[in-house]
Prior knowledge:
This protein has about 400 residues and is α/β, with parallel strands linked by helices. It folds into two domains: about 5-190 and about 375-389, Glycogen Phosphorylase B (Rossmann fold), CATH 3.40.50.2000; about 195-370, Glycogen Phosphorylase B (Rossmann fold). The chain is about 40% helix and about 20% strand. It contains 14 helices and 14 strands. The strands form two sheets. The chain has an eight-stranded mixed β-sheet, sandwiched between helices. A six-stranded parallel β-sheet has the order 11-10-9-12-13-14, with helices on both faces. Helix 11 (about 325-330) links the parallel strand 13 (about 315-320) and strand 14. The chain starts with a helix and ends with a helix. The mean pLDDT is about 95.
Amino acid sequence: MNFKVLKAFKIVIVHNVSFKEYYGPERAIIDFLRELKIAKLLYIQHPLPPNYKDLSTRAELYVRGELEKSIKAPSIRTNDLRLIVVYNALATLSLVLLTKEKYDVFIGSDGRNALIGLILRKLGFVKKVVYLSHSYVKSSDSIKNAIIRSLDKHCSLSVDFVWNLSCRLVKIREKLGVPKQQNIWVPVGVHPEDIGLPKKFPGSNEKKRLAYVGTLVPGKGVELVIKAMPVIMEKIHNVELLIVGGGAMESRLKEECRKTGMEKYVKFLGYMKYQKLMNLLSRCHIGLAPYKPDTDNTTSTTDPLKPKLYLAQGLPVIITNFPETAFEIKKNGAGIVINYDERELASAVIRLLTDPNFYEKCSREAIKLASNYLWNKIFERAFDDILRE
């Protein structure tokens, strides 16, 4: 990769943020480019309800890796998604034009932001547009679904590159007619410094910590974990479930814990900043990712973050056979793949916590698998494709 050329680039990154502690591909790209000290980097983020009350768009301008200016757009207070979409589009256009720069690359996370990149390219303010696609979004509303699919197809066929988080997305874009050289797999990764050491089997008197990281909404599987806890505790004592995240189901889940007597064994820790989360996971023993198989669940086409975080800390992962990453975990022996069933989930936890050799083997393989997904290597390959054009 020609780092000298990339360092001279001016790049815009735009994405929507659902909660303050979010850390995903967009933030990882920012860290990668700041470390390279590229000429200019404009990072625009659009906060989304319900976790944000102030929906004002924010921007950060970095020059050679250092923050030069922070900008906040005028406030907007509404829950009308249509107004929010229009506001965000106008805010992105205004902030890019305000810098009085012409940018080499515009990276838009999701179709709406990629569309603004295409407008800026048409106006001559951007040379190349990258559509960073997390998933193939579905909606039970047929009209809304038609609009989403139409926007996705238009952006996929019009941008210079589509960065897909999963191989399933690559195949979807192939069917749409996206040329192979523009249809790039850019999976979720971890930082080299986040790779921990393989775990030792927890001692008999040691508290066994199960970790669940994610939003507390239907489809993510947190309710299955709580249902499985009483079954697990029949066989394994001294178990604690740590739930990191928040969402609409939190109150109901806490009530469920009270009803089943699991209240003192389940801790709701809320959202955490990335480094604090990684420190917590380093003290856990098993990572849980029991996604619910559902035709409307976008997890089937994305590369979810939490399994990679678990793997990086050497946690054997228990995951349903729904997301693409489950097959990598099974193939490499880095955990146990289950059906969406509370008994299977409980059995998987019990097996790991009663078989020291199996547990430690899974932990070693988890570290090996995570080491194949380092952010810096992933982005070097992705930007190399742009530089070759």
